[in-house]
Amino acid sequence: MAIRAPLGLAAAAILVLSACGGGGNSPSIPKAIPQVAYAAYPSGAPAGVRIYVHLPLRNSAALDQLIAQQSTKDSSLYHQWLTPAQFREQYGPSAKDLQTVALSLSAQGFKTAITSQGVVADAPQAVVERVFDIKLSRRTFAATRGSNAVTLLQASKAPTIPAALAAVNAQVAAFAPLPAMQPNFARTSASPIALNRYSNVGPYWFDDLKQAYQYPAYRSANGTGRTVGILAASDFLDSDMSTYFGFEGLAVPTIVRRPVDGGSPPFSLASGYSDEVEIDLEQSGGSAPGAKFVVYGAPDASIVPSFLDMYTAVVEDNEVDVLNSSFGECELYFTAAYNGGENFTSLFNTFHDIYRQGNSQGITFVNGSGDGGGLGCDDPTGTSAIAGVIWPANDPDVTGVGGTNLVTSFISGSLQSTYVSENAFDDPLSPSSGAPAGAVWGSGGGKSSYFQKPLYQYLVNTGASTRTVPDIAMHMGGCPLTAVQPCGPDRSADLAVLDGLAFAVIGTSASAQEFGGLQAIQDQLLGGRTGNANYLIYGLAALGSIGNGPVYHNNIPGNDGVYSTRRGYNFVLGNGTPYAAQYAFDPFGPQAGNPQTPSNP
Q1: Which of 42, 251, 330, 493 could be 202's S-S partner, Cβ–Cβ 3.0 to 4.6 Å?
Q2: CA distances from 6 to 2, 65, 487 (A)
Q3: CA distance linking residue 407 with residue 467, whole number of Å
Q4: pTM
């Protein structure tokens, strides 16, 4: 699949390198088609079984060019974000085709709602099985790499597309035999632990990280006026948010629950998914405590329908400026080798179209690059770890965030937490933990076997001809409980409050969420959305500095079981970790000082 061919490096080099205005709309794009009743994405539980019928976009190549132009400083379309209605008119499937699909399914007994790119359809299980010639059953997937076992609805085979839908090239994204999306975190302690302010190595509170990465001072920029979305498969405890933020004397950020497919199940520390949503809120909320947070919550971590429905709801709502996800799955698991000869990589296309719509509307998608280092996949037998990257961090319209072990200063009697060093060394996992042979803990990264090299990656030397990840990195920590002990020196962690207790947690769940908060701060300072942030990330890497200061910490030592770090772009840390104020285009403003002070509460 051709994702984006280079349009010429001259266009790519003129990126977002100065203050920008708000996101206006292109006056040349007409209003929405009146005869189609587009609906807000359904928030209630499905009336039976929910499927999603996706139709191909129109003017696909032009859409890729638009996204590039929206990120090109000298373009007349720079930061001219579309509304969902404008996207539908210019790039969405035709109104006639959408109506054809909706009416055909309605006649078969489905309750339908039309979205920008397809049709959401609910029906009793028997109807779904009859119309698409499949048998649906529950399948339990065993726990893998620290995540819990999960039971999902699965199809006996690929659905047969009815003639009316096939005539408009519709695809049905429904119940592929794929495992659930995996959260990207682990615990390093099963009991309350001491704070890092009494030790020279983690775990860190959010304000420790902000001083270390030189964020703008709290009163200069804290995300005010920006909205950050989080994808979740569990509810969270309001009491944990109060405890976590209250420890540093901060009010809990504004958090809104946005249910999808009936919403998430209640908080349960045993689920693994409850840990994830709370870590996400605490890390992103600590990074940008002035922002508003919207938690899109689905009943489970299934790729279809839950994650597909959550992403669709995000672009239809068009409320969030930055959308963070800490979940992912190995890119190879969608291929025929893992699915009895049946290829499910077409799901990448469906999600990619949703990300492109979001980018054109100004939404920045952020995803952790995974915690398996360069060995992020298991072989088809599940016995050995092999090289592979994590989806959706590998999508060209998503920013993949890797991670490091951060070491900060320690002065007895002081809360100072200034930057000392970082490393990205992997930690081998113990075979007794159930990990496949050769598995490691570390910053996920490598070369995609599916997506082509996007335009922005021509701005640096990636050393590959395809899409590579990660794009950027921040602190993730190391030495999980399943690692071969003892781990190497200078390992670190983040502190999270889970069910009223303090835990040391690690993973790109933390680094991705922290970066999502930093992106919201940049959006606040520049006065508008960013869209696909990778154009900016790589443009700044090519530029090297802002205000006579470097933008990224580079040449950080480390390896991930396959690749070693190097100066410049590498498969472990992407372009490096940010000097936050430089990245946010506030190089001369006041910076965050010691934690629990007015500049860094």
Answers
A1: 493
A2: 11, 10, 43
A3: 31
A4: 0.93
